[in-house]
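Please predict the structure of the following assembly.
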Amino acid sequence: MIVRILGEGQYDVSDEALDRLNELDAAVEAAVEAGDDAAFAAALAALLDGVRTVGVAHALDSLDESDLILPPADATIDEVRALLAESDEGLIPG
Amino acid sequence: MSLMKRISLIFRSKANKAIDRAEDPRETLDYSYQRQLDLLSKVRRGVADVATSRKRVELQVAQLEQQQAKLQSQAEKALQMDREDLAREALTRKSALTNQITDLKAQHAQLQGEEEKLTLAQQRLQAKVESFRTRKETIKATYTAAEAQTRINEAMSGIGEEMGDVGMAIQRAEDKTANMQARAGAIDELIASGALDDASQLNAGDDITRELEQMSSQSEVEAELMRMKGLSAGQEPGAIEGGSGGGEVLSEQPETSTEEGPR
């Protein structure tokens, strides 16, 4: 399974490791819903660290799509909300 | 649905929407490749812009540190001349500078981080664009409609995701540097107006600044005088060596000669 951390790149993560990541992901989600900045920052850091630890960097020149995409390490709650908000504007500027 | 899943779906649908598809799939490949090259040069510009901002902050820190050292030495001179009020003023100004410098150093670290991130993003995109170009040529060479369409879709969605990611990274870096540039501009203005220091320029600044400056030039004059007195004292023995050479004469001689000397 390929996981992308935005602003950082893609990682190969084994399916067995995914359960643990899902737990960490749930914590991030709960923090976003509660609007708890401190909990969010800690949970996101734990999730991304988890991916970096269990994952192996995916080949730089591959053109594979990611199965999962995660917010950048320095993202704020508002940015994640904005990321989740459906909008028509394209992601690629210019 | 998990957060990861939701973000993935939204991100992907946006990235796919951003891909312009031509009627002939092969044209889509060429067109997309052109967009990739454009984005790549945009990242390069982004890296250069952040580097420029970083250097500007470095320059400001150097300037402020220089002024800080100047105020420190002025405070010391003021104290030597029993002007505690002036010493206090100089130190107060110095501490205001210290805060600015701490602030600027934090900004500098942030800019350095953005620069590194964008540089890595550039490398990732570069590798993928290169690989897309190879794949594009292969697909075009072996073109048979149905099969090609599948392979085109694969290549396009992979690069689309990367482009979306890099596009976002550029946007974030731009937002951050724009913020800092406004503050850097304000500090440049402060430095230019002399409000931050400027005990260094005679006849510039306020009364206290002038007094500090005057005092430091006075103390420089005193130091120069002392130095000259010391010199002439050292030369005297040589000057009268050929004379009678009495010890009493030697001890008196320097005093009289220096009083006439530099004044």
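Chain A has three helices and four strands. Chain A touches chain B at residues 3-4, 6-9, 21-22, 25-26, 28-29, 32, 60-72, 80, 83-84, 86-88, 90-94 (CB under 8 Å).
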